[in-house]
Design a protein that fits this description.
mainly alpha, globular, about 90 residues
Length: about 90
Amino acid sequence: MYYFFIFIFSLFPRLFILFLKILTDWFEPVSRGWLWIALGIIFAPLTFLWYSIIINWFFGVWQVWQIAIFVFAIILDLFVWHVFRRHLD
Protein backbone atom coordinates (compact mmCIF):
# COMPACT_ATOMS: atom_id res chain seq x y z
CA MET A 1 0.00 0.00 0.00
CA TYR A 2 2.94 2.30 0.75
CA TYR A 3 4.26 1.90 -2.80
CA PHE A 4 0.84 2.69 -4.24
CA PHE A 5 0.83 6.11 -2.55
CA ILE A 6 4.36 6.81 -3.73
CA PHE A 7 3.33 5.80 -7.25
CA ILE A 8 0.35 8.17 -7.19
CA PHE A 9 2.56 10.90 -5.70
CA SER A 10 5.05 10.45 -8.53
CA LEU A 11 2.39 10.25 -11.24
CA PHE A 12 0.51 13.45 -10.39
CA PRO A 13 3.27 16.00 -11.25
CA ARG A 14 4.02 14.19 -14.50
CA LEU A 15 0.39 14.36 -15.59
CA PHE A 16 0.23 17.99 -14.47
CA ILE A 17 3.25 18.86 -16.65
CA LEU A 18 1.60 17.19 -19.65
CA PHE A 19 -1.65 19.03 -18.93
CA LEU A 20 0.16 22.38 -18.76
CA LYS A 21 2.16 21.73 -21.93
CA ILE A 22 -0.81 20.62 -24.01
CA LEU A 23 -3.40 23.14 -22.85
CA THR A 24 -1.38 26.26 -21.96
CA ASP A 25 1.78 28.12 -22.89
CA TRP A 26 3.20 27.88 -19.35
CA PHE A 27 6.49 26.33 -20.46
CA GLU A 28 7.22 28.74 -23.33
CA PRO A 29 9.68 30.85 -21.28
CA VAL A 30 11.36 27.66 -20.05
CA SER A 31 11.51 25.58 -23.22
CA ARG A 32 10.04 25.95 -26.67
CA GLY A 33 10.29 22.27 -27.56
CA TRP A 34 9.54 18.96 -25.91
CA LEU A 35 13.11 17.94 -24.98
CA TRP A 36 13.42 19.67 -21.58
CA ILE A 37 9.80 18.92 -20.79
CA ALA A 38 10.34 15.23 -21.52
CA LEU A 39 13.46 15.20 -19.36
CA GLY A 40 11.52 16.97 -16.60
CA ILE A 41 8.71 14.42 -16.81
CA ILE A 42 11.06 11.44 -16.72
CA PHE A 43 13.69 12.47 -14.18
CA ALA A 44 12.62 15.35 -11.94
CA PRO A 45 9.03 16.56 -12.34
CA LEU A 46 8.78 18.51 -9.07
CA THR A 47 12.08 20.25 -9.69
CA PHE A 48 11.03 21.09 -13.23
CA LEU A 49 7.69 22.48 -12.04
CA TRP A 50 9.37 24.63 -9.40
CA TYR A 51 11.91 25.90 -11.95
CA SER A 52 9.06 26.89 -14.27
CA ILE A 53 7.34 28.68 -11.37
CA ILE A 54 10.52 30.67 -10.72
CA ILE A 55 10.77 31.64 -14.38
CA ASN A 56 7.08 32.56 -14.80
CA TRP A 57 6.06 34.10 -11.46
CA PHE A 58 9.34 35.50 -10.15
CA PHE A 59 10.88 36.40 -13.55
CA GLY A 60 13.90 34.22 -12.95
CA VAL A 61 14.97 35.96 -9.74
CA TRP A 62 16.38 33.45 -7.25
CA GLN A 63 16.23 34.30 -3.57
CA VAL A 64 17.07 32.16 -0.55
CA TRP A 65 13.60 30.70 -0.06
CA GLN A 66 13.24 29.84 -3.77
CA ILE A 67 16.54 28.00 -3.61
CA ALA A 68 15.44 26.21 -0.42
CA ILE A 69 12.24 25.00 -2.09
CA PHE A 70 14.26 24.02 -5.17
CA VAL A 71 16.54 21.87 -3.01
CA PHE A 72 13.48 20.37 -1.29
CA ALA A 73 11.99 19.51 -4.72
CA ILE A 74 15.24 17.80 -5.69
CA ILE A 75 15.17 15.80 -2.45
CA LEU A 76 11.56 14.73 -3.09
CA ASP A 77 12.40 13.67 -6.65
CA LEU A 78 15.39 11.66 -5.41
CA PHE A 79 13.23 10.08 -2.68
CA VAL A 80 10.76 8.81 -5.27
CA TRP A 81 13.60 7.37 -7.36
CA HIS A 82 15.06 5.73 -4.26
CA VAL A 83 11.75 4.14 -3.23
CA PHE A 84 11.09 2.71 -6.68
CA ARG A 85 14.63 1.44 -7.01
CA ARG A 86 14.42 -0.25 -3.59
CA HIS A 87 11.07 -1.76 -4.56
CA LEU A 88 12.56 -3.27 -7.72
CA ASP A 89 15.45 -4.91 -5.84
